[in-house]
Design goal:
The structure is a homotrimer. In chain A, strands 2, 3, 4, 5, 6 and 7 form a 6-stranded antiparallel sheet that branches. The first copy, chain A, is 8% helix and 63% strand. Chain A has a single domain, classed as Hypothetical protein, similar to alpha- acetolactate decarboxylase, domain 2 (60s Ribosomal Protein L30, Chain: A). Chain A is mainly β. Chain A is globular, with a radius of gyration of 15 Å. In chain A, a hairpin with a 5-residue loop joins strand 6 and strand 7. The mean pLDDT of chain A is 98. Chains A and B meet through strand 2, helix 1, strand 3, strand 5 and strand 6 of A and strand 1, strand 3, strand 4, strand 5 and strand 6 of B. Strand 2 of chain B pairs antiparallel with strand 1 of chain C, so a sheet runs across the interface.
């Protein structure tokens, strides 16, 4: 296992803007506070969502779209540099009116309301292609 | 996007009391440590749960009740003042014996066992009615 | 409710090793940084998973195994001493290609890729048998 001790530069609360994209908002927050590394949790609701599932055999993401209002019951992710840009690797658990839960890598989703907590770390994280998983990983 | 840098006053671990209400326990913790703003994650199990889904068109919460034991696989939320009282905005992902996941805004649930981590922030958060979503939002 | 104010000793980011066990990796991280108490959140993907559901009437865990690739949409847990060993109490929300979510106490799962954030606390947490729930609880 690779690990790193981190020092926190700053802690932030954000209210994600209604109508904007959930992941883009997290990246906008990282941009505003100049966080090249960070860890976040968040919750709220979206008007729709595009969730990705990684096909571990084909090493490709598969997209599933949900064109319906969903609660964001839990969102966990982190900020790192990917090709020089701040990228928010965002996983989320969503739910329908029945209470049924959906989940995965949240590529996109239209914010209805969102509340996020971000810790920004001093030392940048950089994603690089990992040969084993064919994913862009840090450390 | 609205955001605020926050300073942490204190960090707390809590064991939620068997038989009490999950959200009330988080609010009791906030009361005990006098946190007018905070962020928490938690996990455990409940004996039952009342989960809310926000109807974005009708701008009303819809309640779904589960009268059965459930794991609390993930719980994310925050503490803010709502009409002068500490309110724990609590989202959670629950699961059944089959592994099936349920999720949403957790209004209530009888604690079977619960473990929580809360960060209390110096500056109070206050919820106010937002005209766009008809929700009580902070910042 | 029992609670404790905690002081953080260190904060760590970890990349869990492909092919290793998810929970064992979190415990290995706690061992490496000598954390006898800690709180973590994590996300990623596993090649399979063994999820436990606690039967609150029989006070026994029931195991469900999923022998398929799954996203780890959210993982929340903590580190404490159990019989003198560091134990990572780990709950997780997983998802299938369809977006369907599964969740529970994550006993085991083969890491495909994993990203974790751990806060290590100064004062050890110790789990002891609780008579009411027949679980090993801290505080």
């Amino acid at each position: 296992m690779n690990y790193r001790e981190v020092e926190t530069d700053g802690e932030y609360l954000a209210r994600l803007e209604t109508g904007s994209d959930w992941r883009a908002e997290l990246e906008a927050l990282a941009d505003r506070v100049e966080a090249d590394a960070g860890w976040f949790t968040a919750m709220g609701a979206v008007e729709d969502a595009e969730v990705w599932f990684y096909d571990q055999d084909e090493t490709e993401y598969r997209s599933v779209e949900f064109d319906e209002p969903l609660e964001v019951a839990a969102c966990v992710g982190n900020v790192a540099l990917l090709d020089g840009e701040r990228f928010a690797h965002t996983h989320a658990v969503l739910s329908r009116r029945s209470g049924q839960a959906l989940a995965g890598h949240l590529n996109a989703g239209t914010v209805f309301a969102g509340e996020a907590y971000l810790r920004a770390f001093e030392t940048p994280l950089e994603r690089e292609r990992d040969d084993v998983t064919d994913l862009d990983l840090w450390l």
